[in-house]
Amino acid sequence: MAYRKKFDWPQPARDALLEGVRLEHAAAREAKTRLKIRIYIAVKQGLTTQAIATKLDISQSLVSQHRIEGEAAYKARRAAG
Fold first, then answer.
1. Residue pair 46/35 in contact by the 8 Å Cβ criterion
2. pTM of the model
């Protein structure tokens, strides 16, 4: 197998890549929080955790956990402003 020399990116390129990764991570965390809040609101509006779990193809216990975390996030956002 032939040896391939590792390409060293210039520092500005590495900085730009790292910033892109940071932004993607922040967006993913925000999206997960929004999902948990939506699950909380859906349960509050009368949907069952079993119906949500079936639709999302995840376990009912995970939906229940997301509902609890979503309620906390919802209340924290309401209190913040």
1. no
2. 0.81
Question: % helix / strand / coil in the chain, to the nearest 5?
Answer: 80, 0, 20
Tokens of 79: 């209190």
What is the mean pLDDT of each successive set of 10 residues along the chain, which is 81 residues long? 78 95 98 98 97 97 98 96 81
Q: Which tokens sit at 78?
A: 């309401």
Residue in 15, 71, 6 with CA at minimum distance from that of residue 38: 71
Is residue 38 within 8 A of residue 70, CB to CB? The reply is yes
Residue tagged 């967006």 (tokens): 27
